[in-house]
């Protein structure tokens, strides 16, 4: 087995068994939910955005080991980044999982190059990333019962969810991303 293949197995098992930043983030002001209908994966990403910078983020959800490990890894990569930097990291990650071309530097992100051998799993690996980008593009989420400029319906229904605008091409992957306009 190659070094990259070994790393792929180690990273996915580690992040799946001991996910980083898992659970609802009480201070989140951006939230998006992603669903992968072909696999049943679900991922909710909570982001605390202060100015242009992601100061904290977490995820919660259920699904296969690849989706959960990727979401866990994504939270470690995006903390402290701007939305533009997050998009650039996603673009790099997407290239890795779709082409199998790992960067020269061996890293946990590079380990996901093994996903390219399983095309149906690319959706699983990118779900959390799409949700994060959807959350970053969304209007700030407010506490339940507060008004929000995202939609008139949202202020009437605290659990209102809005389809995310583009969500970094999630629809190209067959994924559904919605943003929360109010936090429970």
How would you describe the overall organization of this protein?
With 184 residues, this protein is of the alpha+beta class. It starts with a helix and ends with a strand. It is 36% helix and 21% strand. The strands form 2 sheets. A 5-stranded antiparallel sheet has the order 3-2-1-6-5, covered by helices on one side. It has a two-stranded parallel ribbon with strand order 4-7. It has one domain (2-180): Sufe protein. Chain: A (Alpha-Beta Complex), CATH 3.90.1010.10. The protein is globular and about 50 Å long. The longest helix has 17 residues, at 83-99. It is built from 5 helices and 7 strands. Helix 2 (65-78) packs parallel to helix 4 and helix 3 packs antiparallel against helix 4 (122-137).
Taking the sheet with the most strands, its summary is: 5 strands, antiparallel
Structural class: alpha+beta
Low-confidence stretches: 145-160
Q: Helix tally?
A: 5
CATH fold naming: Sufe protein. Chain: A
For the structure shown, list the relevant keywords.
184 residues; 21% strand; 36% helix; 7 strands; alpha+beta; 5 helices; 5-stranded antiparallel β-sheet; two-stranded parallel ribbon; Sufe protein. Chain: A
List the topology elements:
Blueprint: H1 3-17, E1 30-36, E2 41-50, E3 53-62, H2 65-78, H3 83-99, H4 122-137, E4 142-143, H5 152-156, E5 161-163, E6 176-180, E7 182-183
Structure summary:
By secondary structure, the protein is of the alpha+beta class. The chain is 36% helix and 21% strand.
């Amino acid at each position: 087995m190659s070094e990259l293949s070994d790393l792929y197995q180690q990273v996915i098992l580690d992040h799946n068994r001991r996910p980083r930043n898992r659970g609802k983030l009480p201070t989140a002001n951006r939230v998006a939910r992603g669903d992968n209908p072909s696999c049943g994966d679900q991922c909710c990403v909570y982001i605390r955005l202060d100015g242009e910078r992601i100061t904290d983020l977490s995820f919660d959800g259920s699904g296969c080991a690849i989706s959960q490990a990727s979401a866990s890894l994504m939270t470690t990569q995006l903390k402290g980044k701007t939305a533009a930097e997050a998009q650039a990291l996603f673009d790099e990650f997407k290239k890795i999982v779709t082409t199998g071309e790992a960067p020269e530097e061996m890293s946990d992100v590079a380990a996901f190059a093994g996903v390219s051998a399983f095309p149906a799993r690319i959706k699983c690996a990118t779900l959390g990333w799409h949700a994060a980008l959807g959350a970053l593009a969304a209007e700030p989420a407010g506490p339940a019962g507060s008004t929000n400029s995202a939609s008139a319906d949202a202020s009437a229904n605290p659990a209102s969810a809005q389809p995310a605008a583009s969500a970094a091409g999630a629809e190209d992957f067959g994924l559904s991303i919605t943003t929360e306009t109010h936090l429970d």
